[in-house]
């Protein structure tokens, strides 16, 4: 199996794209360390993967709490693959966005990935193999009205991806980003108004939204040896939307 013998850390694995990444990675033989702030959903994912024979550790951590994050990281040891997926959106135009909303969105989408990279890149470098996959967004390329904080943060993760890719390349570590388009996850289903979903689907050449597994399969490819010559890439998985 493409990921057997690899140990992968996936953030935001309690639901949505992160959960699908965990399921796809497990089905391809990876050992998993999963982090989420929601203990209930995370336990469901852990138990389901464990029942199907996967080797999985789950840690309940609110990633924006850096003290808790740093102490949680001590329990983990090294990993071969890091998937920076956890995220949330604080919508707002320039007139409405608050310092707090801006800071927390930058923290989860840029500062947390940096902190995790700082923690896990050194051991990837020493072992001569590693994979970092950051989850961006089409809105990091295009911007979006009323999404000042989120679009800025998702553009930021691209700069981080490309800078770390250059730093890590001599050591056999690749660093890439996946940019989902509209994806059917619990948050999107609950929070995004139907008229916006319909508008995005109309603008999507493939004429539908993605299932989370369609994003996860691209993440799993980038995490595998099949992607050995892919680094510093930002791959839209958007059905053609925004590109
Ligand atoms: N769904 C989409 O249409 C879409 C499109 C583009 C990009 N993305 C990106 O994909 C990633 C996953 O999105 P999703 O739609 O699956 O989201 P989701 O809200 O369905 O799931 C996110 C998971 O991350 C966890 N999480 C959030 N904040 C956390 C924190 N501070 N600490 C620990 N865990 C935390 C949540 O508890 C949840 O389990 C995000 O980075 C998002 O920005 C999603």
Note down, in words, how this protein is organized.
This protein is of the alpha/beta class and 243 residues long. It has one domain: Rossmann fold (3-Layer(aba) Sandwich). 47% of the residues lie in helices and 16% in strands. The protein has nine helices and seven strands, in the order E-H-E-H-E-H-E-H-E-H-H-E-H-H-H-E. It has a seven-stranded parallel β-sheet, sandwiched between helices. The chain starts with 6 loop residues before the first strand and ends in a 6-residue tail after the last strand. The mean pLDDT is 97. The structure holds nicotinamide-adenine-dinucleotide. Nicotinamide-adenine-dinucleotide binds next to helix 1 and helix 7.
Strand order of the largest sheet: 3-2-1-4-5-6-7
Helix count from the secondary structure assignment: 9
Could you estimate the helical fraction of the residues in percent? 40-55%
Relevant CATH superfamily: NAD(P)-binding Rossmann-like Domain
How many domains? The number is 1
> Could you give the distance between the termini?
32 Å
The hetero compounds bound to this protein are: nicotinamide-adenine-dinucleotide
Under the CATH scheme, which class?
Alpha Beta
Q: Output the CATH topology.
A: Rossmann fold
Quickly give the structural class. Answer: alpha/beta
- Please describe the biggest sheet, giving its number of strands, its sense, and whether it closes into a barrel: 7 strands, parallel
Task: Report the CATH architecture.
Answer: 3-Layer(aba) Sandwich
Q: How many distinct beta strands?
A: 7
- Flag low-confidence runs: none
**Overall shape:** globular
The H/E string reads: EHEHEHEHEHHEHHHE
């Amino acid at each position: 199996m493409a990921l057997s013998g690899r140990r992968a850390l996936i953030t935001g694995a309690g639901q949505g794209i992160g959960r699908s990444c965990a399921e796809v990675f497990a089905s391809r033989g990876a050992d998993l360390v999963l982090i989420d702030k929601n203990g209930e959903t995370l336990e469901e994912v852990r138990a389901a993967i464990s029942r199907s024979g996967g080797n999985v550790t789950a840690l309940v951590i609110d990633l924006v709490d850096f003290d808790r994050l740093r102490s949680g990281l001590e329990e983990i040891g090294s990993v071969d693959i890091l998937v920076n997926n956890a995220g949330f959106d604080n919508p707002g135009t320039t007139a409405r966005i608050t310092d707090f909303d801006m800071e927390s969105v930058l923290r989860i989408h840029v500062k947390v990935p940096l902190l995790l990279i700082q923690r896990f890149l050194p051991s990837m470098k020493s072992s001569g193999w590693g994979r970092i996959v950051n989850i961006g967004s089409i809105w990091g390329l295009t911007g979006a009205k009323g999404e000042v904080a989120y679009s800025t943060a998702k553009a930021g993760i691209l700069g981080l991806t490309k800078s770390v890719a250059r730093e890590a390349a001599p050591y056999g570590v690749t660093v890439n980003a996946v940019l989902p388009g509209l994806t059917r996850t619990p948050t999107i289903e609950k929070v995004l108004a139907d008229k916006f979903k319909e508008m995005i689907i109309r603008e999507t050449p493939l004429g539908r939204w993605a299932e989370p597994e369609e994003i996860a399969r691209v993440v799993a490819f980038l995490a595998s040896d099949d992607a050995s010559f892919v680094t510093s890439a930002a791959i839209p998985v958007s059905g053609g939307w925004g590109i």
